[in-house]
Amino acid sequence: MGRSPCCDKVGLKKGPWTPEEDQKLLAYIEEHGHGSWRALPAKAGLQRCGKSCRLRWTNYLRPDIKRGKFSLQEEQTIIQLHALLGNRWSAIATHLPKRTDNEIKNYWNTHIKKRLTKMGIDPVTHKPKNDALLSSDGQSKTAANLSHMAQWESARLEAEARLVRESKIRSHSLQHQLGSSSSTFASSSSASTSASALNNNNKPEAQRPPPPPSRSSLDVLKAWNSGGWLESNEGNGGIVSNVGVSGDLESPTSTLSFSENAPPIMNGIGGENNNNNDSAMPMIEFVGNSGNSSSLVKEEAEQEWKSTYDSSITTTFSSGLHEFTMNMEGTWASESLRTSGSHDIVEEGFTNLLLKTNSDDPSLSSEDGGESKNGDGGGGTNSDFYEDNNNYWNSILNLVNSSPSHSPMF
DNA sequence: AATAGGCACAACCGCAGGCCA
DNA sequence: ATGGCCTGCGGTTGTGCCTAT
């Protein structure tokens, strides 16, 4: 694993980019694609290292970047995804179209993190700051559930991101086959969001990965499996891990069941619970159901996207108290889909399903307000606070939603 | 008006890992 | 199998702007 020197430090400019430099970089990429970033600066006449050029492009100059203030929904999505994924900004960014991981990271560090801190919520764990004791004595079963959800979602997101990348690769490969020159960037860039896609787009043919199998769902399942997630749970004394692989592989439906009576089975999941013998530990159950869920077939705007993606995944989380369904509709649709009329679905899919969990259950509404708005972390009612995951999400969102940005809380 | 402090954001740094010769 | 190249990623720093004093 040799690590390449970033660049020759001598004679290369650092610091803020000038409009002239931006123009040079833009003009070059529009005409030639970026190709090798290392070689780009010399070709483009820039006194910058390739890495600097790449960052400038991916974080600022790319034409498909939405700049400006984050919407409330975007903010909520970031909070929720961060609770699930932690500081995996690139994974979070996959659910915020047109936002870069760097932008999201900065926004988190400068805005959301501070808000949560002021609200008495640990921005790392998304728990009230005085919840540590609860976790250590095994009472925070919901935290364990959430941790497991996070693991599941993390694996899913990885697979999703992989699929999106491969989809883009395929798209660009098709474009290439159709005779597009390297300048296809200029016309297709609006439909290409991630830097990786652009990278692949401009890679020499030999460097491009082979086209993925035509059925995207296969890739998802493969990714799930290759991630070791399912295997790691097999024989784990209670976890049923199964993603249906027979027949139609599309639209996997995963059911996460929490059984109040099941023995502790979450070994290795969620650090604070590894040695937990609490009989109340829920059973987590994944049930693959690949054949029945309603497939959402999306029409591609472009001919190269004729292949349909079955881009719905339904994830049902059920507990003794609540059951809510996550319909991952479109979340691994291609970027082309995002810009061809399905954007809203894609952009809002995960966000909405998350938000949905906070409004579906009327029993939650009675717990809005006072308790969750206790900025100091709850004051002795944390066991209630962690009654279930929904309460947790609800509390975060209510705090965010009910507190205008100019309020003292923020 | 000058200045200090805080804030927001762009950019940089360096590690990790995939790919290829 | 090995080593170099390249990119992705997360953490950190630098800098300009805004606001309060």
From TrEMBL:
Positions with biased composition (Low complexity): 172-197
Coiled-coil intervals: none
Molecular function terms from GO: DNA binding
GO biological process, one term: regulation of cutin biosynthetic process
Location relative to the cell: Nucleus
UniProt feature, compositional bias: Polar residues: 136-145
Region (Disordered) location: 121-147, 171-220, 356-386
InterPro entries in alphabetical order: Homeodomain-like_sf, Myb_dom, Myb_TF_plants, SANT/Myb
Domain Myb-like: 9-61, 62-112
A cellular component term, taken from the record's GO annotations: nucleus
Domain HTH myb-type: 9-61, 62-116
UniProt keyword terms in alphabetical order: Developmental protein, DNA-binding, Nucleus, Repeat, Transcription, Transcription regulation
PROSITE patterns: HTH_MYB (PS51294), MYB_LIKE (PS50090)
Protein name (record): MYB/HD-like transcription factor
Organism this protein belongs to: Glycine max
Gene name of the encoded protein: MYB11
